[in-house]
Design brief:
With about 80 residues, the chain is mainly beta. It has a domain at about 15-65. About 5% of the residues lie in helices and about 25% in strands. The protein has one helix and three strands, in the order βββα. It has one helix at about 65; strands at about 15-20, 45-50, 55-60. Strands 1-2-3 form a three-stranded antiparallel β-sheet.
């Protein structure tokens, strides 16, 4: 995940913020299906980065979720 660079790739501002959030809940779609950690923690996580100046928002799948991509049902290589 390329969040270590200081400037926003859209507007060049240096005011970006980051948080971690779930990739779904009982009230909406699962955005990273089959990539959760285990049966007891089925929801994968995102790192979310937002620019405070222009609002550009990027979602990055957590490393645990990315490791499951090659063998997860429904995810096909491009």
């Amino acid at each position: 995940m390329k969040t270590d660079n200081v400037k926003c790739p859209e507007c060049g501002a240096e005011s970006r913020y980051r948080t971690t959030t779930n990739s779904g809940s009982g009230h909406g779609p699962m955005l990273l299906p089959e990539l959760g950690r285990s049966f007891w923690k089925p929801i994968a996580k995102f790192q979310v980065v937002v620019c405070a100046e222009c609002g550009l928002t990027r979602f990055y799948a957590e490393p645990d979720a990315r490791l499951k991509l090659p063998t997860a049902d429904g995810w096909l290589p491009i």
